[in-house]
Write a structure and sequence with these properties.
Helices cover about 70% and strands about 0% of the residues. It is an all-alpha fold. The longest helix is centred in the middle third of the chain and has 44 residues, at about 15-60. It starts with a helix and ends in a 19-residue tail after the last helix.
Length: about 100
Amino acid sequence: MRTLRRRAGRNDEAGISAVWAALMVTTLIAFAGLAVDLGNWYLHAGRQQNAADAGSLGGVVFMPGSLTDATTAVHEIARQNGFEPSQVTVEAAARPNQL
């Protein structure tokens, strides 16, 4: 009788490795997707920051003389970097030679 119970107990646990493998694969795929999303977010944030820096450096050469020319230059640089000029806000800063 004892041998029958032992064998029955071992057979009940026969599929546990498949269950664990399915759980681990699901978890790994979820973390891989999260890593791809985070990488994409950082890429777009870097592109936005680079476009903002390029626009401010390109427009500041017209300051303090003409905010209109500076705004035009910033909008053109934003367009060259793939952003719509309507998405860009240009303001003069505390110093007259800052954007």
